[in-house]
Amino acid sequence: VLIKPLTDDCFDIERENEALHQQWVSFGKLGTELRHLLDDINVAPEHIEILNNPASVRKGSAYTEADIEVIMNAGREMKHALDRSRRSGSIHLQAMFEKVKGLLRVSDKFCSELAIIVKSVVTELAGKYFSGLLITTEGKTHKHICRAIRDGQRKYHASLLLFIPLVEIMSYLKPELLPDLRDVYRNTIAEKLLGQDLMKRYFGTLPGGSSGSSTLLDLKDYEATRLRNPTQTNFHNADGAAVVKLALSEMLPVIVREAFFTSAFFRLTKNIDGRSKKANFDIAKTVVDFSSAHFRIHLSRSCGLGSLEGECDPMLAFVSSFLLNESMEGYYDKQKKGGDHSLSLAYIRSTILDLRKQVDKQWGSWIDKQIAWVLTNPGVPENAKYAGVLSSFARFPTYLDHVVASCKGMADPANLGKVKVVCHYLQKLAGALFESLNDCATREGVDAVYAANVIRMENSYYFFQAIKRRQDVADLFQKQLSSANAICKQNLSSYIGWMIKREFRQLYQLFASISKLKRDVGEKDVQIHVPKNKLLQTLSNESGRDVVEEKIKTMYTRCEKHLSEMSGLLPFAWKALVKDLYTLFGRWEKLSSQCYGVVISPGAVDIVRMAKDVGSGNGTGGYSESEVRRRGSISLETMSKRLTISGK
User: Fold this and answer.
1) Which tens digits make up the pLDDT trace of 464-497?
2) What pTM, to 2 d.p., does this model score?
3) Would you give the DSSP letter of residue 232?
4) Which DSSP string do the residues of 75-91 spell out, in sequence order?
């Protein structure tokens, strides 16, 4: 009984001694591991010295590649030490925490010193390469100025390439210092390389760059276009178009290089995921936009956007949009290089698109203003009689000539149809013409029997002929051309029918009833309902040669009265009317012969001969005398065959 408590005490003491021994062993292992962890994040003393004062490595007046490499190695050593501390997962230990805290203090000081070094280098090199640009380019041409800018930029960037490792170290250790560094760089470029004075001098030396005056035209200010004997119009060609083309070809490469170097210098495309690409692109765009602000302001003014004091030039804005669209084709990453190259090209495309939106908006506003004028139906009488070609229709082809003339020498007018904005606004303006035409034809007080037909067919025919002759832009208006063709045919047919029924009313009514009776009761019983004497009496009164010839002359005179010379429709309309007369009299001849055995004289061929004589004898119809004689030499048999085939 006395031994048991003693043995239990011995066992407890033994277990406690074993625990203390294990504790001593564990503490020893912990100390060893902690020494390993602390040793793993140690930075060599020579690197600590450089980290505390990176400027001390410079031996001469400027940093050399060896100096930069020494600083870079010290920075990388610091980065690796901090990375190892993060990976160790022991930052919660007091010793590790204090050690890392000390490293971070050294790192912050190191990055601040690097920022000062890079800022000073950026400023010093800019003074070295850009300070003499204004002096050396005085009195020079735009080519010399552009070459001087490119050379200065190339040398400047080549010198700054040496310091990219320092910026890279800063991006790893303390990226919050980079925005301030980017501000210093962009301010230097905006003031020294692409400054206001230098850009003003460059654009001032471009052909027409110093002339700010231009003739601003509305659609109503253009001359009317004549289909016959058109006159040559001398349009004002804004010199700004040449300025835009030269500026895009000479200075855009400078901006591309600036975007490329900004991306490379500030490491905006290195080891990033998809989410960071948009943010880094926005950073690069902000920097380069500020750097090239003066260039973009002058380019915008040259594109017809004007200044705060002056008006905008819509035609120049249109041509500039076309030039911007063509220039953008050369800035796609077709080789899929990616990285800084792809980012710089994406920036240029974005810049061009932004400027295009502005000039397209300017031109579109002008188009909307012209549409408002077109829809007022200027110069059209209330009853629409003898309106002729509407003022808006007559001036639209001249405006298209101005568009083509402005593009020639700057860009290929045949490519206008490939630009969606151009197609949209020009088709919108053309659509407004037909909306105005329909409004004139359907307004209250307009005679729907013939006046509405005349105004529709005249203007649609004029539009069709005028646009078809302008091959450079005809493809843009295929929908409007088809509509104009259909409107002209439909209304011309109605007009001709009204004309024939008016002059040959009794014959028309007589043979209309005979034709109906033939269908209903047959040829043999037609005479029961319409006696032969009635037919002969009507033919005697209405179908004599002198009577028919007088009626044809009356119809031609009425056509001359209704149709304006500007539309050029009279020859076409008269041919269509003669064709319908031939078809109608041929049908009447057939009915008279089958149902009554009576031959109508004059017949269909005689009618054609009379109509030709009337059309050519009055010296109208759109042909010269020699043309009339040549066309009159066509045999009547040939004409009859043609008209018969057409009638089928």
Assistant:
1) 999 999 988 999 999 999 999 999 999 999 999 9
2) 0.77
3) P
4) HHHHHHHHHHHHHHT-T
